[in-house]
Amino acid sequence: MITTAYDLLAGHPFLHGMSRQHLDRLALWGRRSSFHAGTRIFSEGGVADRFWLIRDGAVELDTEVPGRGRVVVETLGGGSVLGWSWLFPPYRWHFGATAVEPTLTVELDGKGIYRLCAEDPALGFELTAGSFRWSSSAYKPPGPAFSTCDGNSNGNGVPRRGRGPRCRPVRVSFRPPRGSSAIR
């Protein structure tokens, strides 16, 4: 059985309760996509112009940490939304993303969805309501996501006696930038 973009949209928790008419319109800007394990979906700093609704599989979000390289900050699974950066200037990915197992998604064109929302405020409202429902159920209080360690030093390169590496938690903030309400 072939699963269409519409079928995947209709079955995704993010769009739960959306009218058939609006799902039909969204499906025009979506396409079924899949990623093999190890596929880099996007890189931190790249142009953000789309997003994905994950049906099955898993995707790791990562960030570059000086001295540590790429560090995973979260793993998203089925029922998740991947890629919020297309909503806010400067429209650049704040993280990178890699599929860690075979992953089935619906890829949605950000500019097309913006236009749909501008043309149809009721659709925009439904998407906004879905965003709030999803984010409130998926929200995790901010806290240390990972630690940075500067080895066996006191911070200035001088070795510390009798102690292991000095580590400190790094907090990851997911705040949209100011002036992010403009539709492009």
UniProtKB/TrEMBL annotation:
Q: Which InterPro entries match?
A: cNMP-bd_dom, cNMP-bd_dom_sf, RmlC-like_jellyroll
Gene3D superfamilies listed in its UniProt record: Jelly Rolls
Superkingdom as given in the UniProt entry:
Bacteria
The scientific name of the source species is Phytohabitans aurantiacus
The ranges of region (Disordered) come to 145-184
Q: Which SMART domains match?
A: cNMP (SM00100)
Domain Cyclic nucleotide-binding intervals: 14-83
Q: Where is the composition biased (Basic residues)?
A: 160-169
Can you say what this protein is called? Cyclic nucleotide-binding domain-containing protein
Q: Which CDD domains match?
A: CAP_ED
